[in-house]
Amino acid sequence: MERKTLCLATRNAHKVHEIAAILAPYWDVKCSADFPEVVEEIEETGDTFLANATLKAVATSHAISAYALADDSGLEVDALDGAPGVFSARYGGIPSSAEKNNARLLEELARLGALAPGQRRARFRCVLVLAKAGEVLATFDGACEGTLLLAPQGANGFGYDPLFVPAGFKKTFGQLSEKTKNTLSHRGHALRKFLAWLKLNPPQ
Ligand code: ITT
Questions:
Q1: What CA–CA distances, in Å, run from 46 to 30, 53, 54, 78, 150?
Q2: 71, 80, 146, 189: most buried, per Cβ within 10 A?
Q3: Apex CA 53: angle with CA 199 and CA 51, to 5°?
Q4: Domains, the chain, ranges and CATH?
Q5: Ligand 1 centroid – CA 89 distance (Å)
Q6: Residue 87 scores a pLDDT above 90
Q7: pLDDT digits (tens, 9 = 90+) for 106-117
Q8: 10-31: pLDDT as tens digits
Q9: Nearest C-alpha to atom 31 of ligand 1 is from which residue?
């Protein structure tokens, strides 16, 4: 198959890195920063991952001739009724940082007295939207169940990875290798659905 250009509709370099590791054999992977015609900041006004991924994919694909793939993702914590959810990127306030987000998450869990692993259950979710010329072609989702630690461990990955231990493992995504994370993660699951779909729907 001839490799077509796919623009990842994201400004998050960590997402680009993880997604490119899976898609590079099949696509010429680029990102929003490679296309000056893509507006700097696409406002994420939706209240679901699907709504926000759609906003990013549609706006980006309007601006360029290549396919656009957006990832909207985040962490849902059961004890916090699903927070931070779609607010994951800015949970600790703006300007946002992973340190501030992780600190707020630990504070909220401490406030609830959620010390036992059973009270610290969480999952990452990812929704991918593929669009071309402003039209949504397909959507894919993935989730990864796990538990949150009481303090960060490890420096791999990004965001909440140092706090998140995937189910069946003893190490956080911050301690596991990128390859292992990609086999287990919400993003990896959604990307493999995308690859399966591509076999039936090769890009024109
Ligand atoms: P773009 O909108 O430009 O793609 P973003 O980082 O703002 O970048 P989102 O709005 O989808 O993206 O927010 C995702 C946030 O959820 C991200 O910033 C992290 O805080 C968290 N998150 C998502 N996937 C994660 C992962 O694999 N590991 C750790 N944290 C993750």
A1: 25, 9, 9, 21, 31
A2: 71
A3: 120
A4: 4-200 (3.90.950.10)
A5: 5
A6: yes
A7: 999 999 999 999
A8: 999 999 999 999 999 999 999 9
A9: 159
